[in-house]
Design a protein that fits this description.
Blueprint lengths: L9 H18 L4 H24 L5 H11 L4 H25 L6 H21 L6 H24 L14 H21 L3 H12 L4 H26 L5 H27 L2 H23 L3 H23 L5
Helix pairs in contact: 1-4, 1-10, 2-3, 2-10, 3-4, 3-11, 4-9, 4-10, 5-7, 5-9, 6-8, 6-11, 6-12, 7-8, 8-9, 8-12
């Protein structure tokens, strides 16, 4: 029997050429030395952020948002809008590589979460974002995901943990549950520019026991759809996409168009437990980095501990209730 022919991600290469040609056209009359003199920290950050976005259920904004707002002192709204814009390039690149290489994904997960996510993103953009304190939101964000990482680690320590490549015997209750988690994830994404991917990934791996190797690329596709909508909302409807966000975006486009699909390619070659271990590292580094930069007050530290405790309790309860295939 002849070995199967290697798949060629034609759509990704076409998108790559289109993006690079468009970027060259936009920057033809721009002093690139000045552009990168002013924005090289953002481009360097996005090398790591884009790779993480393609290789994990964390969007690049999970890296970019705290670095931009806390280290580079970029206003939160600029960082969020930049996140939507840059992920529309990087995560689209990663998604096209995933589809082109025929990496296995869970289409029911993608479909129903995306339906809920659209509603959550629009609602959150108009009614939640104006009420949120950026620092408290970030502490809640990193604490909740660390609690998920601990729960997943405990689950994976169980001998002979059974996992599936898809949700077995999908029911209407499952459809509703996925859509409901999508709504909440969409609200989270409206605040940070990312979140629906990792939030629903929690449900998939803890409750449905879907293989991390399948859930991860699926979450990348979900965040791609969400981020394109978010970019459109801010650039074309709210029209609050500032020149600063555009300059940051322009500096980072040629970085993310390569590094996000590179992450997706690398993750396709790792075993399931290797993907889970990478996620643990990301979540711990994200939490420790936020604590180091924010230096939370006693009240904020108590909020983190409360979020960790409640989050761990919820995820462990989900694990106990896990749906039997």
């Amino acid at each position: 029997m002849k070995p199967p022919k290697p798949t060629v991600p034609t759509l990704y290469f076409a998108f790559l050429i289109l993006v690079l040609v468009g970027w060259i056209w936009f920057t033809w009359n721009i002093d690139l030395r000045l552009l990168y003199a002013n924005n090289w920290p953002a481009a360097l950050t996005m090398m790591f952020g884009a790779f993480i976005a393609g290789a994990s259920p964390e969007g690049s904004a999970a890296i970019a948002y705290p670095v931009f707002t806390l280290l580079l002192e970029i206003p939160p709204d600029v960082a969020r809008n930049f996140a939507f814009a840059i992920q529309s390039i990087g995560m689209t690149s990663a998604s096209l590589l995933i589809l082109g290489m025929r990496i296995k994904v869970e289409w029911n997960y993608i479909k129903y979460v995306t339906l809920g996510g659209v509603l959550g993103l629009v609602f959150g953009t108009y009614y939640v974002v104006p009420l949120i304190s950026p620092v408290l939101a970030k502490l809640f964000f990193v604490s909740l995901w660390l609690s998920f990482g601990i729960a997943l680690w405990l689950e994976n320590r169980r001998p002979h943990r059974e996992v599936f490549d898809q949700i077995p015997a999908m029911t209407r209750h499952d459809q509703f549950r996925l859509a409901a988690f999508g709504v909440i994830g969409g609200v989270i994404s409206s605040i940070f520019g990312t979140g629906i991917n990792i939030f629903t990934f929690c449900l998939m791996t803890i409750y449905y026991r879907v293989n991390e190797k399948v859930a991860t690329p699926s979450s990348v596709i979900i965040m791609t759809i969400e981020t394109i909508l978010g970019f459109f909302l801010h650039a074309q409807i709210l029209k609050d996409f500032s020149p600063h966000s555009f300059e940051l975006w322009l500096a980072c486009v040629p970085v993310v168009v390569f590094f996000a699909p590179l992450g997706a390619f690398v993750i396709s070659k790792l075993p399931r437990k290797g993907i889970a271990q990478l996620l643990y590292v990301i979540l711990v580094v994200q939490f420790v980095g936020a604590m180091f930069v924010i230096k939370p007050s006693l009240y904020q530290a108590m909020l983190c501990l409360l979020t960790l405790g409640v989050g761990l309790g919820i995820f462990m309860y989900l694990a106990k209730l896990r749906r039997e295939g």
